[in-house]
Amino acid sequence: MDLTPTGATQTSATTRPGVTVSDADRPRLARHVRLTFSRTRQCQVLLHPETVVVLNGTGADILELCDGRHTVAEIVTELGTRYQSVPDDEVRQFLTRLVARRWLEVGDG
Length: 109
Fold this sequence. Notes:
6 strands; 27% strand; 29% helix; Outer Surface Protein A, domain 3; two-stranded antiparallel ribbon; four-stranded antiparallel sheet; alpha+beta; 109 residues; globular
């Protein structure tokens, strides 16, 4: 679930105080962010103005489920069916970091 930004600029706001995600939140990509497959890199990337974030497989799987319909709890459950073990706290930390950077938005369940 590492985020590896490449490109001209990096977002300086890595955290916002008080930003957390709850099990009932329904995360979705912000309007200015796109998840797409990079043929050059042969992996999923997150496109943000002037930044390309290379995702590992787990990070891409999480973001594919961030469609505004799945709750955080449902995302964790779905990942549990795909992988042997899913550290719930790591998924929540990953989502919290993306919300703090304003790459994800959350709606209440």
